[in-house]
């Protein structure tokens, strides 16, 4: 049965017409567009979660590889250091009586004191090796040629000290210019 009637303003009101669908309880009916959008959103969220997990696993693996590489570097360094110590000690000397000769005796037997030096030891030899390495680095071509490059400035300064002919040609003039730029030097 249906109930209905005409309202005072002339509109016709009909409730529960025959053949009308019953109102649904619960969730509202979603349109096809809303279902597609929701499905896409769920898919994208799932994809983000999967990618996040993959990236996290990669990060953990990279940290593990870096740790392993660091460990390998340490082992190599320990092996090199132990070889260095083994070749430079003198096992025939009692370390409790003369530790210096015990620790450095092997090196001292293999390396004579140069004639131009009053004293010479392993520290001086390492210093000479480091100077040689620095010299080779400073004589390499400049890789960062920009005007503000610290590398370029250091290498140019070093090379300017090596050009003795240019230093002799200029004499004291560059230093006098610096003194003048600083306001002079009263004597």
Automatic annotation (TrEMBL):
Protein name: Endothelin converting enzyme-like 1
SUPFAM superfamilies referenced in this protein's UniProt entry, alphabetically: Metalloproteases ('zincins'), catalytic domain
The organism's place on the tree of life at top rank: Eukaryota
GO cellular component, one term: plasma membrane
Pfam families: Peptidase_M13_N (PF05649)
PROSITE patterns: NEPRILYSIN
Source organism phylogeny: Eukaryota, Metazoa, Chordata, Craniata, Vertebrata
Membrane spanning stretches: 37-57
Presence of keyword Methyltransferase: no
Keywords: Membrane, Transmembrane, Transmembrane helix
GO MF, one annotated term: metalloendopeptidase activity
A GO BP annotation: protein processing
InterPro entries linked to this entry: MetalloPept_cat_dom_sf, Peptidase_M13, Peptidase_M13_dom_2, Peptidase_M13_N
Boundaries of every Peptidase M13 N-terminal domain copy: 95-185
């Amino acid at each position: 049965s249906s109930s209905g009637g005409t309202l005072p303003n002339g509109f016709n009101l009909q409730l529960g017409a025959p053949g009308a669908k019953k109102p649904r309880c619960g969730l509202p009916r979603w349109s096809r567009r809303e279902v597609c959008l929701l499905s896409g959103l769920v898919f994208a969220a799932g994809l983000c979660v999967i990618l996040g997990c993959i990236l996290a696993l990669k990060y953990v693996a990279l940290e593990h590889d870096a740790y392993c590489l660091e460990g390998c570097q340490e082992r190599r360094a320990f092996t090199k250091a132990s070889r260095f110590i083994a070749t430079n000690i003198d096992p025939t000397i009692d370390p409790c009586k003369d530790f210096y000769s015990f620790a450095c005796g092997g090196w001292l037997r293999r390396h004579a004191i140069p004639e131009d030096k009053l004293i010479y030891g392993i520290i001086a030899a390492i210093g000479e090796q480091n100077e040689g390495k620095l010299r080779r680095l400073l004589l390499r071509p400049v890789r960062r040629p920009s005007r503000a490059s610290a590398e370029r400035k250091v290498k140019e300064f070093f090379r300017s000290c090596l050009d003795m002919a240019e230093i002799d040609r200029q004499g004291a003039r560059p230093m006098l210019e610096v003194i003048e730029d600083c306001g002079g030097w009263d004597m």
